[in-house]
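User: My instructor asked us to take a sequence, write out its structure as tokens, and then describe one feature of it. I'm not sure where to start. Here is the sequence I was given:
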Amino acid sequence: MKSIHARLLEKGVIMPDPAQVFIAKDVSPDNIEKDVTLYPGCRISGSGTLLLSGSQVGEEGPVVMENVCTGRHVHLKGGFFKDAVFLEGAKAGNGSHVRGGSILEESASIAHSVGLKQTILFPWVTLGSLINFCDILMTGGTGPQDHSEVGSSYIHFNFTPDQDKATASLLGDVPSGVMLDKAPIFLGGQGGLVGPCRLAFGTVVAAGTLQRKDELRENRLIFGSSLRGGNVERSAGHYPGLRRILDHNFTYIANLHALEQWYRHVRGKLISPRFPEKLHHALLQQVKSAISERIKRLRQLKEKLAASARVSCFERNSLHSLWMEKADAVCLLLSEDEKQSKNETVLHFKKRFFDNFIFEKDYLSTLASLNTEQRDAGRRWLYSITEKRAGEAWAALTF
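Assistant: Let's start with the prediction itself. The structure tokens for your sequence are:
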């Protein structure tokens, strides 16, 4: 029986030095297409691995890859990649560290030494070098010359002093972001974003700025220095900003449900050799993983509150007490699959969007062909999902 290396070389996979490429037994040769290039120093494993034609792995340095799916012409130049999906034309520089729940959509790119986990980047979003950008969804931009960007040496702060990660940040949003017609977001280098945070389309945060507050108005320039010095008593587990934390998490999860519907009903109609069913399935699984991660973090937030030394100080019927009492019910509600929805508003706008929808040869050209009325109907369909899901969560918590 031929070795996996021999079978891949025979079908047209390019390996300049096959002896220096390790491919585990659980990798299916059928999931690595011809014209994929595997440079020396690659270690590939995982039954979920899928590499489409034209992709290159390890061109700048060694690569460790496990259960990674790539579309066509993806460049993973060096680093560690696990349980992530890269769509056509996405790029990751040497020293990348990309983990579960991460999606880089078409032509999104990260330069060298970037860490991602539970990160979703929409088409053309570009990250510089030396960046930690976990637990975040970034949208915005209209094309390769007009895209959202994060400058080098940027950090998304996603771990609190109370040791929780209910901190996912939403830059732009899914309903408008998927239409690829909104102003890009720019985060200047040598800066940071304290999660959870929301920024609107067109936001520009000047280099060196530590962004702590939301900005929901579009097209704003934000600049500023660090906090004024101080030294005050701190009470662990108090969570004075609990309402904002919950609101941001409910909104983030609602946007993930909208994204899942978009992937299912729009990308699902574009199955082809350049976007096969296996890649579509991997995308849907990533979104489900992202929803599960956020719900897990909300449950942990409840546990942190319950374990707090201040738990006896929470007033009855306060938001803190309500969350400890009803968190499980709210999380169960947020985890329910949107495809089961029979909400008339959602179905009405969805029908309007698809009535005159024309599917082109690929995803980006399909979106480029949409007219203003179609984009508006699509936005309203997806916003009806996000508003419904977040509203249901608040209703379950407060009534």
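For the description part of your assignment, you could build on this observation: DSSP finds eight helices and 30 strands in the chain. Try explaining in your own words what that tells you about the chain.
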